[in-house]
């Protein structure tokens, strides 16, 4: 299997007091090696449900999911434990898996040094900025050595300026560490600037309404901030804005 993830014709229903609720209907998508796939859709369209199926928190009602590699999940909020230091927070997954040893601790130390958190390893979460907390949360996810990251609106709790800076940080970390990712977001600009491909969901029940391969003209090394200045950016934005019009 050359692709990291293949979702084939999945559907998902929930059963409520008023009957069956179909949330996802005959949905297929692929995450290719080396790429970031963004999922855009209206509120309540089932974006997070897709991630929950990929992380095996939920089972699809029908269809097939193939995953080539280990999954790491980064949530909307950092969920750092306020009574633990940053070092103790980023190693908690290794502790739970009983994999905290000299080798894995050395990898965590490298990540902290590489991404600007080493001097804060003894600090507590309340002493860090929102952007630094998100970097710590990503390092905590990377510490368990996943191949694929699921990013569930990881920047939405941040103010706009911090959001731009952290999206640059996270993008560069993903590329440097050679990790594939699925990014769920409601922010069109964020999706265009970070993703290699964007899948647009319909309103519930979610289907793939359309998909876009993102090809931006960027001078030098690509970053999300540079991507926003690309001449093609506005055309992608206008097309995706029309796709997300729930009245269409």
UniProtKB/TrEMBL annotation:
InterPro entries reported for this sequence: AAA+_ATPase, ABC_transporter-like_ATP-bd, ABC_transporter-like_CS, ABC_transporter_ATP-bind, P-loop_NTPase
PROSITE patterns: ABC_TRANSPORTER_1, ABC_TRANSPORTER_2
Keyword Transferase belongs to the record: no
Domain ABC transporter: 5-228
GO molecular function: ATP binding; ATP hydrolysis activity
Any single Pfam family the record assigns to this protein: ABC_tran
Keywords: ATP-binding, Nucleotide-binding, Transport
SUPFAM superfamilies listed in its UniProt record: P-loop containing nucleoside triphosphate hydrolases
Name the UniProt record assigns to this protein: ABC transporter ATP-binding protein
């Amino acid at each position: 299997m050359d692709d990291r993830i293949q979702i084939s014709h999945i559907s998902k229903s929930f059963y409520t007091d008023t009957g069956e609720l179909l949330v996802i209907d005959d949905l297929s998508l692929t995450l290719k090696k080396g790429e970031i796939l963004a999922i855009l859709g209206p509120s309540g369209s089932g974006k997070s449900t897709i991630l929950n199926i990929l992380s095996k928190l939920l089972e699809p009602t029908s269809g097939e999911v193939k995953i080539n590699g280990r999954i790491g999940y980064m949530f909307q909020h950092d969920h750092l434990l306020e009574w633990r230091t940053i070092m103790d927070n980023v190693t908690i997954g290794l502790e739970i898996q009983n994999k905290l040893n000299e080798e894995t601790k050395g990898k965590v130390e490298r990540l902290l040094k590489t991404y600007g958190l080493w001097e804060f390893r003894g600090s507590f979460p309340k002493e860090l900025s929102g952007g630094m907390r998100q970097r710590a949360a990503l390092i905590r996810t990377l510490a368990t050595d996943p191949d694929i990251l699921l990013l569930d609106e990881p920047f939405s709790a941040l103010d706009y300026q911090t959001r731009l800076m952290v999206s640059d940080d996270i993008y560069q970390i993903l590329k440097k560490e050679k990790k594939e990712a699925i990014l769920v977001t409601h922010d069109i600009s964020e999706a265009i600037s970070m993703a290699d491909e964007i899948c647009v969901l319909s309103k519930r029940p979610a289907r793939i309404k359309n998909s876009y391969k993102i090809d931006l003209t960027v001078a030098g090394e690509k970053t999300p901030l540079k991507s926003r200045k690309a001449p093609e950016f506005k055309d992608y934005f206008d097309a995706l804005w029309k796709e997300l019009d729930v009245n269409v």
